[in-house]
Amino acid sequence: MNTLSIFNPRFSDGLLDAFDEMNQTMGNFFPSGKTFAARMAAPKVDVKETKTAYLMDMDLPGLTDKDVEISLKDNLLTIASAKKSKVEKKEETKEEGEWLIRERSSMEFVRRFTLPNDIDADAVNANFANGVLTITIPRKVESAPRTIAINGNK
Asked: I need a surface site. Which of 22, 28, 86, 103 has the fewest CB within 10 A?
């Protein structure tokens, strides 16, 4: 059976679910903490399996194709971004005024997915349109089992 799963080398699936829920809850109480804020900033992804491909859609509002890096090595798909705000880049600004609320200053995330063995790694492609990253991961055509003749003693 082929499965596509979220990659996390430290935890088993059941334990990971518990930690994800705890991180999300703690992030609500401590939104300024780097670990919790980074975890909360991780974009959600939808994954669909068809007979010919795995399709991934990830909402990335405010980002462009130049802000996102995608890599695939040993069936580990990594999607990452580190977009810094103008303030964090130390760029001079001529705007007057003082920020009262600033929640959109930067976005940083890394998502990793363990891909099944039936993928065609050379044919993976990505498209970015209207703030949605779509990755198409074609599946290899599985060969049909064949019958093998048995030679007996003669």
From this structure: 103
